[in-house]
């Protein structure tokens, strides 16, 4: 007798949720739970899930990062998959080797996603080759867990109470670039919020001053 698995789709798009709900339960023999970013954690605590699928077209990258961190800390058996993964933004910080098993770019169609999910069900990971190579080059860098100079600069500015826009203006880059630096720094120092990052910087700033 086949066992029905529980999957969760986290998206703000009702259209996407309805589309997937009409296909995936029959195609993969799963029960699909629909979640908003705000209630994902609560729903995860009430049922056993084997996979969580994030729709990055409707979830802010910072929020997706925080939700992924929840899964890493509290639900180590759950696999994560990212739909609509951006090509133009460096979002590699979202991918965690112990949980992320699938990444699909924004140009992937449903057939591509279905084919990839079948591979994931067979125990394989499905990550685009260019992204995988980029991840490997980072992972084999001895300094991969060390803060970059720019990440250190951004962490320093947090102590002055600067907003992301303030920091962007100070460093002559875009606000989205600052967000990316912050997310990557958060992962490296093991925090998931701005307040935690400030507290960390207050304790360790002598180590990151440039």
TrEMBL record:
<feature type="domain" description="HTH luxR-type">
    <location>
        <begin position="140"/>
        <end position="205"/>
    </location>
</feature>
<keyword id="KW-0805">Transcription regulation</keyword>
<keyword id="KW-0238">DNA-binding</keyword>
<dbReference type="GO" id="GO:0006355">
    <property type="term" value="P:regulation of DNA-templated transcription"/>
</dbReference>
<dbReference type="InterPro" id="IPR000792">
    <property type="entry name" value="Tscrpt_reg_LuxR_C"/>
</dbReference>
<dbReference type="InterPro" id="IPR036388">
    <property type="entry name" value="WH-like_DNA-bd_sf"/>
</dbReference>
<protein>
    <submittedName>
        <fullName>Transcriptional regulator, LuxR family</fullName>
    </submittedName>
</protein>
<dbReference type="Pfam" id="PF00196">
    <property type="entry name" value="GerE"/>
</dbReference>
<dbReference type="InterPro" id="IPR016032">
    <property type="entry name" value="Sig_transdc_resp-reg_C-effctor"/>
</dbReference>
<keyword id="KW-0804">Transcription</keyword>
<dbReference type="GO" id="GO:0003677">
    <property type="term" value="F:DNA binding"/>
</dbReference>
């Amino acid at each position: 007798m086949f066992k029905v698995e529980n999957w969760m789709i986290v998206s703000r798009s009702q259209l996407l949720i309805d589309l997937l709900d009409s296909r995936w339960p029959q195609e993969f023999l799963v029960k699909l739970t629909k979640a908003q970013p705000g209630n994902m954690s609560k729903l995860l605590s009430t049922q056993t899930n084997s996979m969580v699928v994030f729709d990055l077209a409707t979830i802010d990258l910072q929020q997706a990062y925080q939700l992924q961190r929840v899964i890493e800390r509290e639900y180590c058996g759950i696999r994560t998959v990212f739909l609509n993964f951006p090509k133009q933004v460096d979002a590699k910080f979202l991918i965690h080797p112990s949980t992320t098993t699938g990444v699909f770019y924004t140009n992937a169609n449903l057939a591509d996603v279905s084919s990839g999910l079948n591979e994931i069900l067979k125990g394989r990971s499905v990550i685009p080759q260019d992204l995988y190579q980029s991840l490997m080059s980072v992972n084999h860098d001895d300094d991969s867990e060390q803060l970059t100079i720019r990440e250190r600069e951004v962490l320093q500015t947090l102590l002055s109470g600067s907003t992301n826009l303030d920091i962007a203006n100070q460093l002559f880059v875009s606000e989205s670039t600052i967000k990316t630096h912050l997310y990557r720094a958060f992962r490296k120092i093991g925090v998931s919020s701005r307040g935690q990052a400030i507290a960390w910087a207050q304790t360790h700033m002598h180590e990151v001053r440039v």
